Amino acid sequence: MYIHLVRRPGAGTGPITFREFSMDRFFNPSSVAVIGSSNSPFNLGATISNILGYLGFPGELYAVNSKGEDVHGSRGFRSVLDIPGEVDLAIILTPARATPGVIRECGEKGIRHLVIETAEFSEAGEGGRRLQAEISEYAREYGMRFLGPNCLGTLNAHNRFCCFFGIIPGMYDEVFDRPGAISYVIQSGGVGALVIDSFRKDITNVNKMVSIGNKEDVDEADLIEYFDGDNTEVICLYLENVKNGRKLLETARRVRKPILVYKVGRTGEGAKAAMSHTAGMANNDIIFESACRQTGIVRLKSISELYTLPKIFTEMPLMKGRRVAVFTNSGAFGGITADLIVEGGLEMAVFSEATQERLRSTAKLFNVSNPVDLGPTLGKQAFIDIWDAILSSDTVDGLLAVPNVWQQVVVEAICELGEICRKYDKPAAIYIPNAIERILAIRTGYNLPVFESPEEAVRALTVSYEHCRALGKKALEPLPV
Amino acid sequence: MYIHLVRRPGAGTGPITFREFSMDRFFNPSSVAVIGSSNSPFNLGATISNILGYLGFPGELYAVNSKGEDVHGSRGFRSVLDIPGEVDLAIILTPARATPGVIRECGEKGIRHLVIETAEFSEAGEGGRRLQAEISEYAREYGMRFLGPNCLGTLNAHNRFCCFFGIIPGMYDEVFDRPGAISYVIQSGGVGALVIDSFRKDITNVNKMVSIGNKEDVDEADLIEYFDGDNTEVICLYLENVKNGRKLLETARRVRKPILVYKVGRTGEGAKAAMSHTAGMANNDIIFESACRQTGIVRLKSISELYTLPKIFTEMPLMKGRRVAVFTNSGAFGGITADLIVEGGLEMAVFSEATQERLRSTAKLFNVSNPVDLGPTLGKQAFIDIWDAILSSDTVDGLLAVPNVWQQVVVEAICELGEICRKYDKPAAIYIPNAIERILAIRTGYNLPVFESPEEAVRALTVSYEHCRALGKKALEPLPV
What we know:
The structure is a homodimer. By secondary structure, chain A is α/β, with parallel strands linked by helices. Chain A has helices at residues 44-55, 99-109, 126-142, 173-177, 189-198, 220-229, 245-254, 268-278, 285-295, 305-308, 311-315, 332-343, 353-360, 380-391, 408-415, 417-424, 436-446, 454-476, and strands spanning 31-35, 60-64, 75-77, 89-92, 113-116, 145-147, 153-156, 161-162, 182-186, 206-211, 234-239, 259-263, 298-299, 323-328, 347-348, 365-367, 372-374, 398-402, 428-431, 450-451.
């Protein structure tokens, strides 16, 4: 659907091998040429050749530079046209002014997928804007599609592929050693690095990440559509602007996976600052907000939500109503979380007499109405019985568990909470006020969906419910053709 | 001023030694009796005798229990009346019903300071309420003042004193080994534990902490007044209710140190949950909010702000206006923080031509207007020159520094930022998006006022400005008599 077969008369002379375009090739190429990768000091292309070698990329690796020299084990050529085999994906880091010529050569070679990482295009003023239009024109002529310019390209944790410039072997080992289910479209390398860094101690991790920079061709909507069809479970976006709002919203409307978006430019000052970064136009944020509501896009409230919230979707059933039960064995957190639940648009569940009676039979409780406040106990079973009583209740849609962890039995009890949630098809968000360092260190090992603040935990239940409600609306609407 | 000398006729018979009351004795007692400390298994009083021994408390330590036995090195007695020397502070952990008798004995002994840690008073229904009124009556008769009931009492990091029950030797070593300047009034032990735990990796730390529980006698206003006169730099409160609003507000109005308050019960559900915890009444939150604004109390937005924000006051000059300059070497964070600054009620500073010219001379910058976006550099001096140019500008009230840290030189540059801030008497809040784990590990050592999210950093500048503005208003108002 994305192939443009028109060729400008007189443009290029050699025969063109039209490899079929597929968005998947940006993440799963079988042969890669890094154009502008050389052995000069501080060469950015070389860092890509280096990381691909380090990661053990199994396909063919080529480096294109003026000397035609090999770089970090990639075979060197002076031009892509000299490369004997087919090239699936070309990664371009030549200076901006050299890029149009390079792209024409890629077209002649029959390359269909380009990552143009070079900067100084439309984000850098009028000259750059003209250059960006020019490369766009060439790509269209040759039926090529591209990411960028002014981007980092792609990362695929599952097949150990990464063409981000500047990363050093070892830097992202945790991502590749422990691939996850969350895919990111990120309009900035810096935010991508932050996300990856933040997953080190978390239960979830990255599936794919793509930095789209000035997104002259491939944009967030194309990638949402692609992630809807692959092994992604949650789609997260960091956007500095939206160029084609209608396309984004129509795509979002079709997709049933959760789409979480943090967008810069909520204020005029933010939009202005973003423009100098990735060359977007200021968007009307009120329109964007209302569009998100219509299409079920979850709007994130802080940059950290990009990495803290997805685990409520990957680890827990959806929240199907507003009614939250709170469990704590540290009384203060009952009041703290009740405020947050109401402020977040959810409700405190009201327990039936039967549920309260069942709770009374489990252990010594300070409070059997909601929030449930457990007194000192040494028994793992007390926790499990209480959670079962709560989650089995008809008046409860989800659980906010705030256990203080003083003994190992509490950790062991929490490990069984996931099972209870699956049994009743309701989610729990866990926040542990004390011993946070200890818990974070073991979170991944124990597979505990633990949040790092009461605000995060409540937000997780809120976005889960938001998404569930949007799904309900989508089911009622006729699918767009 | 707090001494009540009236004695009910017939109450008590022996001579009373009236030691002078002083709030300071709660934190700096010279002799302590833990009443209800025994060698029975799971005895809570014993944990206090134990921790005081472990911390090396230099004064006299007594344990009162039915057998009169020594506990963890504290000399044992059957009654406080049997203790030969004076007792500065009595810590009471006997069962609620036994408390009135114990308190009378303390009165007879001439003890003026009590910490009543026992629970099951007014938070536990009508019987508890009557009991609480009774102990209050006895205390008044004997001219005693007390913390609690249903509390943990006090911690003083500077003299290694702590009477929190349940803490285990070694648990809070970091607090006592590295005393700080922030004092806390906390209406819940759980929140106190969270605060202490959260300071492990931070630049600032606790000075004193007091858990006031049901606050039948000594309340937050008394303690604010006390902290205003000691070595505290920032006063932080966690409140579940306010009993005497007028007293709190009149005290706050007099105090010039920053007072930061997180209050539960912003919603009806939160207030209800808090009532079952520390027996408060639901307060009208709108009235509280407006009272805070009038008296310059800074209202906190999340429980974590209790420990993340104070460092902007302890490490940095006050923010004297709204105009923030942003510095980053990771373009995305310019837009992200500009949104947050405007949404937080601050403004993006506008640089003069002269400032922009000076910035141009420092290094290769992608942007010399605000946000300042630095390109790749290897020089520590470039950072310092840019920050000096920014902070010396007449149109800038504070700096938000968002450096990505790839090299050690950046850390070294940040270490000099404090000096530049003091030179121009303007604050900087630092947020470092990547390598956060690395930075947090060295934050204390390097004395870097680093915040852990862009939201936190912007909030820090906001509350600094809020406090500064409140101080300006206080200066204009006549001091209350």
